[in-house]
Protein: Major facilitator superfamily protein
Organism: Perilla frutescens var. hirtella
Amino acid sequence: MGEGERIPTHSDEVPGQAGSEIRSIFYSPIYWFKMLARELHWSFVFGVTIVYGVSQGLGGALARVGTEYYMKDVQKVQPSEAQVYTGITSIPWIVKPLWGLLTDVVPISGYHRRPYFIFAGSLGVVSMLFLSLHPGLHIVLALISLTASSASVAIADVTVDACVAQKSGLHHSLAADMQSLCSLSSSIGALVGFSLSGIFVHLIGPQGVYGLLTIPAGLVFLVGVLLKEQRASSFAYEQMNQNLVNAGKAMWKTLKCPDVWRPCLYMYLSFSLSLSITEGMFYWVTDAPAGPMFSKQTIGYIMAIGSVGSLLAAILYQYGLKDYPFRDILFWAQMLSCLSGMLDLALVLRWNLKLGVPDFIFVVVDASVSQMIGRLKWMPLLVLSSKLCPAGIEGTFFALLMSIDNAGLLTSSWLGGLLLHVLNVTRTEFHNMWLAVLIRNLMRIVPLFLLFLIPRADPNSSLLPDEVMNTKEVAEAQASENVELVALVNSTDGR
């Protein structure tokens, strides 16, 4: 070794390595985003970002806070009634298979996806304008408008889900990345939306917020204009009924597979048994004399900070948990959900004040933890659902799986409303609120005993047996029997 040479020391390497690591951390999301745009096309990534990030994330946050105050301050309904009304407006999400079936088997002007984005955006603009421009609206008309707005978001959601499911079938290795893109977009959008929601509700009122929600709906319309989709060369509309029948048969065949119906049963039961008493808690933290009496701005800030937990969960799943078996992640997520529910009980019983923890700090921690755990439970179920979709009916079947989840959430909402009614939790009476929270927490234990329904499989592998995966081949084999689903499958596959 010459005189001018020496062994590099650790202190010589650290600055360069540290700078390189910092740059890598900063640019990694950008490279990841560009990779998805390159592999999946930029219009697809744009559509996912708009639908999940702007429409569902930001728009959903504004709509949630705006609707809660609209029901409480404008319509002046009881918390148990608000819980039921929330379930009614979610009905379009229960019939998601209908929207998915339409996108799969009923093309418009040769396109399976673009026209449905355009219709969804138009419906959202009209319904939000109607709500914002009519003061003193009767509760029935208000529910119809809110349900139409919910249908707008649901149709856009099922259409982009069909795109995601189709891409997942073509790019198995990117399935988890696509779900991470969906979750990150939704979480970031919700963070921004909740941050602004309380301010907007305070300044322009709930109906003014509905006026603002025409912007996300308009952007969904734009997705339909820009999305790259190959136009089907021909489609025999007289064969539409036969296509619907064949799609139904393919769905039924898939559902009969134990590897499919068992996870479906778990998803429904796990959501329905986790009773929702969200409206009761909202009324308690804003109106109860013994409660925190939070203002509109404070509610928005709490939900915004809480949504950070959802964002962190999406990042944690993408970079640390996406390769773990579904059953393991769901076990720990459900266990943590049981434990985190005790934070609500401590808040209602005012234990946090006895420990010297201010209400705002305690509720922020509670909201962050709850949303993080909820997202950690939701993401593996989304990946699992995307892998249970047979080729040719991706949109329909993924919508069916999501409708099962939403049916569970609807059951949870209505059972929670019934619980609040039975315990006599009203706008002015909150003495039994602690009991409602306790019962909800105990019910969260039950799904732990149902985890045997979830496959302990590699999340990166195909989960469907060959006879279910080969839906396209089955359709082709039946062509001699005048079954013309082949054209549908080919167009869905992007040929």
